[in-house]
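Page 47, continued from p. 46.
Same chain as before, 98 aa.
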Amino acid sequence: MKLTVKNLQTIMGYLRNVAEVDANDEIANTASSLAYRLEAAGTSVFDMPLNFAAWSELDQATAQYAIARRDRYVLLPGNRHAVDLQRVEKPRRTLKKG
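Result:
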């Protein structure tokens, strides 16, 4: 399947979210690396083909993982960082003054 620029941008967004949120450092680093290489694909610095079938198995699996997590790891409007919607975060305690 040949990817369009819009497809690449969407996948890069999903990969960035995985890179920021995923608890497994190996997966997060792989997603970050792939997002970086896709960003440079237009300049052919890393010679990243736009044909998805020509990607390495690891790159394909990473992209599929990011797509599968698109509804879980999201960048909410107004936020600077992605969040994991399934992880419950404890509210921060406020320190008493004085």
